[in-house]
Amino acid sequence: MVSEINPKINSSQKQKTTTTAFGVVTEALPDTLFKVKIDGKEETQLAYLAGKMRMHRIRVLIGDKVELELDPYGGRARITKRF
Hints:
Structural class: mainly beta
Number of domains: 1
Distance between the termini: 34 Å
Radius of gyration: 15 Å
Strand content: 35-45%
């Protein structure tokens, strides 16, 4: 598939700009939002459930260890996996 912005770049050639981190859910908020404490850092990150987790109704509770995809621009993180 060819990109609409630059026709010379295939969609498979686009770089992945997110970073992966692990953390523990500290608070559950409305609308499937969660506060997650990232391992090795003092800060908490606001995170939402990924689409596949919503679709398959995977429940995330306080104290669950999760995998996050962090936005490089400082937006909300996405919870991609529960351990």
